[in-house]
Amino acid sequence: MATYIVQRLLATIPVVLLTSIIVFLLMRLLPGDPVLMIVYQASADVSSEAVQQMRRQYGLDQPIHLQYLAWIGKLLSGDLGRSIISRQPAWDVLRPRILPTAQIGLTAWALAILVAVPVGIVSATEQSSWKDWLGTIGSLVGAAMPYFLTGGLLIYFVAMRWRMLPASGYVSPFIDPVRSVQTTILPALTLALWLASTITRQTRGSFIDVLRQSYIRTARAKGLSEGGVIRSHAFKNAMLPVVTILGIQLGGLFSGAVITETIFAVPGVGRLMVDSILSRDYPLVQAVVLLITAAVVLANLLVDLAYGVLDPRIRKA
């Protein structure tokens, strides 16, 4: 198992390298000069010599390939660079933003699994019943509603009209655990609704396909209860495609966090990425993308390990 994990991690090196090249080039191709933005924010007269000196300070006067090699060299030594706007180390800016995004994303992911998997199983085992129709309609509504609409409705009703939860902000669980849970619920529900709709449809389709197999009919013919058939014979086989979706969602939670954190004013990684792109803060954008890439790689590794748990044949291979 250890050898397999090492091999998988080594196989991700080309992916990370290619991602870094693409992001590095795209940021340089965007219109706008970060140095000129600093000058504009300072609202002061700065000479052209001072502007050129700032470009040399951040290495922006060099060709793109030399800038990339310099950045990779620093990255290999553990240096993510320094923010052009705040002039702080990129890791120091990024580090406090990870906890809000991770807390909201993992909470949403867990809520989606706890709701969607049972609903999908019930829909598959009781096809054409009112439960199946209710689960199908709910999943379609969740998939059709964009994040900004779901978040806006939750803010309007839950926060503003009913005054049950705060409408925005974030509090660390290390500061106030109760307040932290309160500020996490609405953004987590916004993310969980879309996640649950996808998981429900995948679970339902996968279980319907498995329940039609011959070994399921054999288990029923032997007198095994329907619950026993689901638990002992259908569950692991049907969950293989679902685990793939769960891994993709776990790695892609940052995409939903960009919108959700903006709506709820959460100081997380997604909001930091938007602000960094708008200000052309190259080192911060590159640091955020590397973090997202690492999350996707880790999620894919967890999916591969889960395959081995669900299907012994995969583990032996």
Describe the structure.
There is one protein chain. This protein is mainly α and 317 residues long. Helix content is 79%, strand content 0%. It contains 15 helices and no strands. The chain has helices at residues 2-11, 13-29, 34-42, 48-57, 64-76, 90-125, 130-144, 147-161, 177-211, 214-221, 226-251, 253-263, 269-278, 282-310, 312-316. Helix 6 (90-125) crosses helix 12 (253-263), helix 6 runs parallel beside helix 14 and helix 10 packs antiparallel against helix 11.
Strands, helices and their partners?
Blueprint: H1 2-11, H2 13-29, H3 34-42, H4 48-57, H5 64-76, H6 90-125, H7 130-144, H8 147-161, H9 177-211, H10 214-221, H11 226-251, H12 253-263, H13 269-278, H14 282-310, H15 312-316
Helix pairs in contact: 2-14, 6-7, 6-9, 6-12, 6-14, 7-9, 8-9, 8-12, 9-11, 10-11, 11-14, 12-13, 13-14
* Percent of residues in helices: over 70%
Content of β-strand: under 5%
Would you tell me the overall average pLDDT?
85
Question: If helices are DSSP runs of H or I spanning 4 or more residues, what is the number of helices?
Answer: 15
Main sheet properties: none
Q: Can you describe this structure in just a few lines?
A:
With 317 residues, the chain is an all-alpha fold.
Fill in the keyword field for this structure.
317 residues, mainly alpha
